From TrEMBL:
The keyword Transit peptide applies. It comes from the Eukaryota. InterPro entries: MTERF (IPR003690), MTERF_sf (IPR038538). One of its GO terms (biological process) is termination of mitochondrial transcription. The lineage of its organism: Eukaryota, Metazoa, Chordata, Craniata, Vertebrata. Belongs to the mTERF family. This is Mitochondrial transcription termination factor 2. GO terms for molecular function: nucleic acid binding. It comes from Periophthalmus magnuspinnatus. SMART domains: Mterf. Gene3D superfamilies: Transcription termination factor 3, mitochondrial. One of its GO terms (cellular component) is mitochondrial matrix.
Length: 378
């Protein structure tokens, strides 16, 4: 065995190396034939970004020669993002590090025209990073913001549409003007008042931010179908206003199949069918397989067709959700089989509030039942 004067020194180096955390080495991934940028890897590592996840879904980002990791993180930090949020944003949308700092600054200024504060903006970036870091259509975005503001729409609605459906802001403003013009004509033709047009538009966009992505012609097909089904202008306006799925999204054939299903399983007349739609327009957006699954699922857990006819909104919930709420109501002393299903539908907040009230009433009833009656003499 040969002796080496450097043996102890090498051993110390090895121990020191094993105890010191280091960034993952740059490598060539199976989905990307280009070598990763070591500076990008190191910068992301320092921010506690899960590099393995980035490699798995967006490996090409790590190979780009120009990346602005620290600059992007710094701007997010200035807007109020903490280290864990910065890591989460860069991990879920690593393309953000490829945006030039100047472009990000311009984008922030653009978004602040529809956001009340940095805190609101960073909340949007957390949920919709792709919408904020879309840098290729600045001019279209700006023109669309100015146009929607000229209609008197509030910042909150414009920001919601911009975040949820960024494509509607990247397209030329003329396209959105055409859709808004069609919406205005539709509203007025159906008996709407010009004075309430702004409120109606805000409600429509608030329900469905993707409205502007549909061509104007698609609106006419859906409206003509409802007219052919015997709905009056006032009734159609009500359906359009309450329907979370935009009318252009619903093909006439799909709506026809949904109505035919209800007519058959509920054994109702055309007028009754119309009232069901007016009560719950959302059923028009449910596919027949979904309707079949939910309807017969409700029947299997003990509900009947008459209850569903009286409260069609119950079909907006999954069978599992209905069953869960039924059990919770039962624990509060309420028997849904002999009551109205309206108590089941609604938001989680509303349902929890109702359960709280029923629980208090149930507890009082139990206490009164358990208290022995006093004698007349006492």
């Amino acid at each position: 065995m040969l002796w080496s004067p450097f043996g102890d020194r090498l051993l110390c180096c090895r121990i020191k190396f094993s105890l010191t955390p280091v960034a993952p080495f740059s490598k060539v991934t199976s989905t990307n034939s280009r070598l990763e940028n070591p500076h990008t890897i190191e910068a992301l590592y320092k921010l506690s970004v899960d590099i393995g996840k980035v490699r798995k879904f967006k490996s090409w980002v790590l190979s780009e020669t120009s990346a602005y990791v620290s600059e992007t993180a710094g701007m997010l930090r200035e807007m109020g993002a903490d280290p864990s949020l910065i890591a989460s944003i860069l991990q879920n949308h690593p393309e953000a590090i490829l945006c030039h700092p100047h472009d990000i600054k311009e984008q922030k200024n653009l978004w602040m025209s529809v956001c009340a504060s940095d805190r609101e903006l960073i909340s949007i970036i957390e949920k919709f990073p792709a919408a904020f870091f879309m840098m290729s259509h600045h001019e279209n975005q700006r023109a669309n913001i100015v146009y929607l503001q000229s209609l008197g729409l509030c910042k909150r609605i414009i920001g919601k549409v911009m975040a949820s459906a960024p494509q509607s802001f990247s397209q030329p403003v003329q396209r959105n003007k055409e859709v808004i013009h069609t919406l205005r004509e539709t509203y007025l033709e159906l008996g709407g008042d010009e004075c309430n047009l702004k409120v109606w538009l805000q409600k429509l966009l608030g329900h469905n931010p993707f409205v502007l992505l549909w061509p104007a012609a698609a609106w006419r097909d859906g409206l003509c179908f409802l007219t052919d089904q015997g709905f009056t202008k006032e009734e159609i306006l009500g359906v359009v206003s309450r329907l979370r799925a935009s009318i252009p999204e619903l093909q006439p054939e799909t709506m026809h199949q949904a109505l035919s299903f209800f007519e058959q399983v509920l054994d109702c007349s055309k007028e009754e069918l119309k009232q069901i739609v007016l009560c719950c327009p959302a059923i028009l957006s449910l596919s027949v397989p979904t309707l079949v699954q939910r309807f017969y699922g409700l029947m299997d857990i003990g509900l009947n067709a008459e209850q569903i006819k009286d409260c069609p909104a119950v079909l907006e919930l999954t069978t599992q959700m209905v069953l869960y709420r039924m059990h919770k109501l039962s624990s509060c002393g309420y028997d849904i089989h002999s009551g109205n299903l309206d108590i089941i539908v609604g938001s989680k907040r509303d349902f929890d509030m109702i359960c709280g009230m029923l629980q208090q009433r149930h507890q009082k009833t139990m206490v009164n039942t358990a208290t022995p009656l006093r004698s007349v003499e006492e």
